[in-house]
Amino acid sequence: MNASTVTDPVTDPVSDLVLRVRDLRVGYPGPAGPVAALDGLSFDLAPGQVLGLVGESGSGKSAAALALLGLHRGTGATVEGAVTLHRPGVPDVDLVAASDTELRTLRGTELAMVFQDPLTSLDPYRRVGAQIAAAYRLHTGASRAQAQRRTAEALDRVGIDPALRARDYPHQFSGGMRQRVLIAMALALRPRVLVADEPTTALDVTVQAQILRLLAELREETGMALVLISHDVGVVAGLADEVIVLSRGRPVEQGPAGSLLSRPTHAYTRRLLDAVPRLDAPLPERPQPPANDDALIQVEGLRVDFGTVQALRGVDLTVRRGETLGVVGESGSGKSTLGRTLVRLQDPTAGRVRFEGADLASWHGRLLRERRRDLQMVFQDPGSSLNPRRRIGDSIAEPLRVQGVRDADQLRAESVALLERVGLDAAHADRHPHELSGGQRQRAAIARALILRPKLIVCDEPVSALDVTTQAQVVALLRELREEFELTLVFIAHDLAVVRSVSDRVAVMRGGEVVETLPARELTEPQHPYTKALLEAVPRLDAVA
Amino acid sequence: MIRFLLRRLAGAAAVLLVLAAVTYLLFYLLPGDPAVLACGKGCTAPQLDAVRHALGTDRSVPEQFWSFLSTLVLGHRFSTGPTTVWCSAPCLGYSYQSNEPVTQMLLDRLPVDVSLTLGAAALWLLLGIGAGLFSVLRPGTLRDRITNAVVLALGSTPVFVLALLLLMVACVWLKVLPFPSYVPLTEDPAQWAQNLLLPWLAIALVSAAGYTRLTRAGVLEALSLDHIRTLRAYGFPERRIVTRHAIRVALPTLATVAALDIGALLSGAVFTETMFGLPGLGKLAVEAAGTIDLPVVCGITLLAGALVVLANTAADLLHAALDPRVRI
Fold first, then answer.
1. Which of the listed residues B86, B102, B118 is the one where a domain comes to its end?
2. Mutation target vs B (from A101, A102, A107; most B CBs, 10 A cutoff)
3. What is the ipTM of this complex?
């Protein structure tokens, strides 16, 4: 009997399971000994069952996904415990102890994986059909023609016309379509377990709903078991039979999805659920509702073309002084272009943006530089919008320096004061961006936007790269700051619930146009069919309850 | 694509014009009079004037430059005494020293450098990328480190030292090869290859180092990419991932560097040509510069410039061909 064959007389026979995971541990090498990324994960997975793994970033979900397929090998990470794969008529295999060769034959055929970022998970140099066929031929030794047929079937099943698209390259597909290609790749081999690590996080809500529906259908048809990993409880709630909540590598709560999500017993699970922005949550009262007729920004017939692409095709919009205007829409709807045009990072092709009555396009040279202090922006990814080679304090003080302040003590004092105001402390000023967490980095980016005491801050997806709990904290911070600094905010996001929770009014964008502008409290009863469609695509926590 | 090539052509013309002007200017700033050199010893004043007139150096510099350009584009009828010769475009004039037409001189020597460069390039790509893949299949091991050390040592050896070593070993000690002398490919392909083998090796061993490093670094970087992780998750063997998929990521960069290297080498490898006695452009350039032979110097400079522009264009086209996301 070889070492990878497991028979454990103590536990139950695994005959009715596909996967049994016991005490799975993953450690990464750190300067002071190994750091535990995953600490004792155990579960049983039956054919056709969906297991949800939920937790914030750093909770060990991705480490668990990689460990299930043995993808930690060769990385220096240590994996302990047992991942037992059961196939009828074949001795069970422990994937943790299996040889590299044995494991390779099981990857794809028994366990397949779908990754978080469909944009980068396909080979950019090969046609999508060829990629699927290559994986299929690797394991089956099928002929080219057979593989091609199988590829066509799989693509067809995920809703991609093989005759039209199989010979296209990944960059010719949208994010959602690329995720379909990756699912087709798995489907071609008919694995019995599909591990999906944040499969919809990078996608729009409507596309997310399509992908989740596809996964549910495939489970019905093929009987494959699914391990669905997400930080979004809503995504897991709609699909999972059983849920495991992970916190700092440890499973804190485990049970049937319905009861666990409706009656969580662990405090961490409750916190996680409370932090999820809900469309039916009561809206917080604004202490001073913004004046109705005082326009800070007026957008008139705004058009922006990029070559032949029309990013904005005639937008009329008013942003009132002191209000928070939410902007929602799917990717490609023009919401980011609108945001960039409002702070003059982008010049209009036609139409104009007036700030306190003055046309932004009329500012040049010194005047533009002086007026820029009124218009600031916070970007989606603080990891890339803060210079990685500069200390946080220097990055925050930079706008002041550009405006002519040269006194080092003053620069330091102002940046530290703001750091403390956004919930960090003076010590963070001397750190570099990579030493901070995502939430801390976004706080620093907000401090940088505040240092010139602007009148307007455009936040472009400020929380979409963050966990739900961090997201809630950053949103709360923005709410406080807008009162304290008398800010007008334009809050751009694809997450309707988040936008609703901070905004006074919401503009809904589609295809470069504003289809509807409505008060935030009326967002749940929209007029426009597109807004309705967006709302229906939002996954709900109570779907299984 | 057509627009890209037309733009490149216009750019090339501009580059070459500036290059010709700068070469002309530099030439007239240098001390020495080509007429004195051409006339030889015991030259009388009237003879010198006659030579100057024949060479055209008695005219003003802009005039000479203009006549050089029109000759290049339109051709020119040269008359020295009773005889007239028609030099058809692209005419680069006649050598002050040998009175041969420069265009013909360049065309005679270009095949030497083309043979030398293309053979050497094939060899250095094979050795460089091969060594890179060999080392990166087992990163961090002894094999990886030894491969890199050897390649680095060869890469930092001057080409003439390596050439001497190769000559000593192959021609003097082992006597497996004759001392190289150039035989045109059209005359005897076997002899051509045999005679060029040592020069090819000398250039390839020195040049391979950069390609080994690029390959190794490119593949290592590619191995952490998401789409490589997808391949691993589907059970592709590591060797196949490295040699077929990860190398693909490094290939556009390798192709760009190779095209530029080849372009630079085509216009003359002075050291290698001298060490192995090959009658190439490099040797001609050194001789012409020494004797202030303006038409020859200008001709070689323009040819070198044209080859570099050509190599750049080839690099861009290759990049586009190798990366489906790039459209030109």
1. B102
2. A107
3. 0.79
